[in-house]
Design a protein that fits this description.
It is globular and about 75 Å long. Strand 4 and strand 5 form a beta hairpin. Strands 6, 7, 8, 9 and 10 form a 5-stranded antiparallel beta sheet that branches. The protein is mainly beta and 444 residues long. The protein has 2 domains: 77 residues, no CATH class; 342 residues, 6 Propeller (Neuraminidase). The chain contains 3 helices and 29 strands.
């Protein structure tokens, strides 16, 4: 037996160089149903943000009882479960667009913006004393909330559209920006005399707003950045006939160079596309073109400025995820339950762990998907070979592995996990699996 163990050590050393340069991206997902019985509207968003501890917060509308009214709900992760609060009761009727936006201030208190039952723009916020009453931001009727972010001074930046049904109709509306806190929200017009769909906003390192949106009248994807009181506009792409019902299908993020990245849906080819500004020109790529894919896209950048996109595969009713690994795009299906992926919203933890909220229309559920993270992450799933449970596959695990070279492995511990393929024995096949996972995690 000692000879066999020594042989394993010799074989292992010869694999060491290969192992150190071999990286496998984990594809394990934790999927949870956050809420059931979610209204009858097909337009129910459930945006997600992360607090300073990396824990998830969400907002959405729901009806807990058979009713014609919807309640505004705030959900937050508490340990391994979710705590939910009804913020406003009977706030919307079933035929209203149940769309919300959520942001957190520097003390992790939530602010939720939405279109109220009078089709006006409103918001509520929480303090140590509880929830505020609803505050009106724009009393104009036919307002639609698109997106919202919080700046470093705890001011909200809200992008919304407005159309006057008595002054030209929805084809002659405005895309607006409201910035403020409390009851004061000065407003700026980003674009006018058009119909604006799926607007998204991000702030650069100077707090300047960058906005991307569909111009439905001209069937174009537009990018605008504020320059003082002027908006500098660029046409990014012609996207075909934009459907006004497809909200939430444009997303924008700003990288460490203050360059914009945009994910969006191409209505001509039914594809997911991605545009990136490199400082002089826009680079446009088709990321996924298998079936009708790319509605409800949501984009986030990781610590290396690499894009991660969550979106719906409409053909298969599934939530999909795409990420650029530095060389190529990696694409996978996360959840094909019901018709998942509507209003997908992605966020990344400080350790680049993926968190996605989305709506399953077929089952009327708000759902959540979290990637298996590293040490200290609540979804941490040790890679095969992490026998020491130190969040690495390294020499400590290799030493334990060599000791367990034997037959007779069985449930429940399979030779303390060294029988990686659960064949009943620890052999060279298990060594190969350990090698493939070598240094798959290099810290939390």
């Amino acid at each position: 037996m000692s000879l066999q163990r020594n042989l394993f050590r010799i074989i292992g050393v010869s694999f060491t160089v290969f192992c150190i340069n071999f990286f496998v991206r984990a594809g394990d997902w934790n999927i949870e149903v956050i809420e059931t019985q979610v209204g009858i509207s097909n337009e129910i968003s459930c945006p997600i943000v992360l607090d300073s501890n990396g824990l998830e917060r969400m907002s959405y509308f729901n009806n807990f009882q058979p009713s014609t009214a919807l309640n505004l709900i705030y959900a937050r992760r508490s340990g391994t479960s979710w705590t939910k609060q009804t913020v406003l009761s009977n706030e919307l009727t079933m035929d209203d667009r149940a769309l919300t936006a959520i942001a957190l201030d520097s003390n992790d208190y939530p602010y939720i913006c939405y279109r109220n039952s009078s089709k006006q723009l409103s918001y509520v916020y929480q303090t140590s004393s509880g929830w505020s009453s609803k505050i009106l931001i724009d009393s104009s009727i036919e307002c639609d909330i698109h997106d919202m972010v919080m700046d470093s001074n705890d001011k909200l930046h809200i992008v919304y559209s407005y159309s006057d049904p008595y002054g030209g109709g929805i084809e002659h509306g405005e895309l607006k920006l409201a910035v403020g806190r409390g009851t004061s929200f000065p407003k700026k017009t980003i674009a006018s005399n058009g119909q604006y769909v799926s607007a998204a906003i991000a702030l650069d390192s100077s707090g300047i707003e960058h906005v991307s949106y569909y111009d439905k009248n001209n069937n174009q994807l537009i990018y605008s950045v504020r320059d003082g009181n002027i908006w500098q506009m660029q046409i990014i792409d012609s996207v075909g006939i934009v459907l006004s019902s497809i909200r939430g299908s444009v997303s924008i993020a700003i990288d460490s160079n203050d360059y914009a990245h945009i994910s969006y849906y191409d209505f001509v080819n039914f594809d997911l596309k991605y545009a990136r500004w490199n400082g002089s020109v826009w680079s446009i790529q088709t990321i996924d073109s298998i079936g009708a894919v790319g509605r409800y896209s949501s984009l986030a950048l990781d610590s290396a400025d690499r894009p991660h996109i969550a979106y719906q595969d409409t053909t298969n009713g599934a939530l999909k995820y795409a990420m650029f690994d530095g060389t190529s795009w990696q694409i996978e299906t996360i959840d094909d339950t019901g018709t998942s992926g509507r209003y997908a919203c992605i966020a990344l933890t400080s350790y680049d762990r993926i968190r996605i909220s989305y709506f399953d229309m077929a089952n009327r559920t708000v759902r959540f998907a979290g990637s298996a993270g590293g040490c200290g992450d609540m979804f941490y799933m040790p890679p095969k070979g992490d026998l020491s449970r130190n969040c690495y596959v390294d020499m400590a695990d290799y030493s334990m592995f060599a000791w367990w070279f034997e037959t007779g492995c069985s449930k429940p511990d399979w030779c303390y996990g060294a029988d990686l393929n659960k064949s009943g024995m620890v052999d060279v096949n298990d060594l190969m699996e350990l090698c493939q996972n070598w240094l798959i995690y290099t810290g939390p």
